[in-house]
TrEMBL record:
One of its GO terms (molecular function) is pyrophosphatase activity. Pfam families: Hydrolase_6 (PF13344), Hydrolase_like (PF13242). It comes from Dentiscutata erythropus. Keywords: Cytoplasm, Hydrolase, Magnesium, Metal-binding, Nucleus. This is Haloacid dehalogenase-like hydrolase domain-containing protein 2.
Amino acid sequence: MNSIRGILIDISGTLLIGNKPCEGAVVGLKKLREAGIPFRFCTNTTKENRSSILDKLIDSGIDANKDEIITTLSACRNLIISRKLRPLLILEDDALDDFQGIPTEEPKDAVVVGLSPSNLRYDMLNKAFRILIDNPNAPLIALHKGKYFAESDGLSLGPGPFVSALEYACEGVKAIVIGKPEKSFFESALKDMDLLEKANQVIMIGDDIAQDLGGGAKELGLIRYLVKTGKYRSGDETRDPTINGVFDNFGHKLWGPELNL
């Protein structure tokens, strides 16, 4: 553990629930910052752009910088530009700010789905269905396929069930997934810290055993810690006995003897 080179940290459910910090989050980040270990906030959050995410972290008492935040929105934007697509964006208005300059009038050749409580409704999903069914080459792009997430009043549906509904309706369509647990997402965060070749010396911390600690995180050999906040459910750790540890919250024990902080 003394050879740790960097840390990747989930936000929703690990550091914040809604606009409030999770237990141990503020103290844990403060200790980590003082230790001088580089880290990145790695989030599947798609309701807000990076500036809004930064504001939420700072308002909750968490010291953060915009260039420390890795989101799925920027990766999605790059994919759309590279393929010269005119997509239907099923996103919250705040998240749309990260897609300025992308042609979206009369969308015809792609559908992007993120977490959007105000737009994941029948008429928008039906519009997406028609684009996908009328154009077999149109990609269905899922910013992530999380089943649910934690809010201040309990668990809520994520975008995953809606993406699966479109896959089911449009026979033969398989979504391109951008965010966690995709390997490419973790690789982009590691590259940002110049640690791709030292992945086994990087910690990933999250509240979701599958989205945060499975898939690419496991494949790349990251050191994986589960926290019992956010969407954590009793017994989640038994679903993957290969994870490296389980902690009550982000600030509990993790920054004590494990890292000698």
